[in-house]
Amino acid sequence: MKRILKWIFRVVLVLLVLAFLFVFVAYWRSTNDCGQSAVPTNPMKAIVYCDYGLANVKLADVEKPTPTDEQLLVKVRATSVNPYDWHFVEGTPKIMRLGVGLRKPKETRLGVDYAGVVEAVGKNVTRFKAGDEVFGGRGGAFAEYVCVREDRLVALKPTNITFEEAGSVDIAGVTALQAVRDKGKVQAGQKVLINGASGGVGTFAVQIAKSLGADVTGVCSTRNVDLVRSLGADRVIDYTKEDFTKGADRYDVIIDNVANHSLSEYRRVLTPNGKYVMIGGGTGAKDWQGLFGPMTRAFKIMVTKRFVSQEMGMMLTDPKQKDLTDLADLMQSGKVKPVIDRTYKLSELQAAIAYLEQGHARGKVVITVD
Ligand SMILES: NC(=O)c1ccc[n+]([C@@H]2O[C@H](COP(=O)([O-])OP(=O)(O)OC[C@H]3O[C@@H](n4cnc5c(N)ncnc54)[C@H](OP(=O)(O)O)[C@@H]3O)[C@@H](O)[C@H]2O)c1
Q1: Which positions of the chain have pLDDT values less than 70?
Q2: Taking the model in full, what pTM does it have?
C-alpha cells in the first residue's frame, strides 16, 4: 500500500511539473505580430490591441484586405460593441487566455458586428454584387473594411433599417434568436421571462419572444421600464423594487442574461417542465475578474439538470447565416427593431467599451465608421 501511494505521489508530481512547464512555455511563447508587420502599402484604419487592457486599444493603419474568389469586400459603415469584445480586450475570464494568448492576445484585431456596402466581389460570388447593402459578423470588424465569404455571416440589410441599426444586430440578435426560438423553444401563449431585458441581447429577446406569440415579462431597472414595455413586454418587473423569484407567477421559459439568482430560485418560478436558458452572467466586466468568473454557474447547471424535471442549460451562440436572414426577415416585417443606446466614432472605441463594461447599456452601443 505504501509503495502504491508513493508511486501515485510521484506520478502526480511529474504531471504537476509538466503542467507548470507547459503553462510557463506557453506564457513566454504567446506573442503577436505587433511591431513586426511592415508599413501597410494599401492602408485602412482599424482597431488593434497589442496587450490586454482597455488602455491598449487604439486606432491604427493596417493593410486593407483583398477579397478571395469566394469573398466580398465590404466597406463598413457601422459596427457595434458586445460584451464579447471586452472579454477579449481584458482577457477575462483568465482561463480563456489559455486559448487566446497567455501573455498577450494572439489575435490583435477586434470587433464582430458590421453593416456596410459591398465594394467588390470575388469571381465565384453569385449572390451579392458591388453596391449591395449588407450586414453580418466578421472578426476584425472594428475597421474600415472587412472581407467575408458569401456563405458565412452576411445577409442583405433590410431596407427599413439604418446602417447603425443593422450594424448592431449580429451577436446580440442571433444570440437572442437562438436562445428564445431554438433553446427555449418558445411557443405561442407560453409565459416567458427575460432577465436583463433592456440590454443588447434582452431588447432583441423581448421582441423575438413577442413575435412568436409569447406572453413576455421583462426584468430591468427603473429607468428602463418604459423602454422594455415599448418593445412589447406584457409585464415589466423593476428589479430594484421587486424580486421576481419570490413572486407568485410561474414561467414556461426563463431567458437569463444576468444569472444573479441561485438555480433553486429560478427553478422555484419555473413550471415543472419549464426551461431555463442561461445566456450570460454578471453585471459588466468587474464580475469577470478571476479564473472563471460567472462560468462556474455553467458547471452547476451541468450537475443540477441531471436531477430535476426542468430543462436547464447554458447556451453559446452558434453563428449561422440562416439565423441572420431570419432576423433580416423579422426586421423587414417590422416585428423586430434594433434599439440603439449610444453612438460613438471608431476613434472613440475605448470610451464605447468602457461604457459597455459597466453592464448597464440600454440596447446596443453602436460605432460609426466614416
Ligand atoms: N452565451 C453567449 O453566446 C452570449 C452571447 C452574447 C452575450 N452573452 C452574454 O449575455 C449577457 C448580456 O449581454 P448583452 O449584450 O445584453 O449585455 P449588455 O448590453 O451589457 O446589457 C446588460 C443588461 O443587464 C441588465 N442588468 C444589469 N443588472 C441587472 C439585474 N440585476 N437584473 C436584471 N437586469 C440587469 C442591464 O439593465 P439595467 O441597466 O436596467 O440594470 C443591461 O441592460 C452578457 O453577460 C454577455 O456576455 C452571451
Answers
A1: 23-30
A2: 0.93
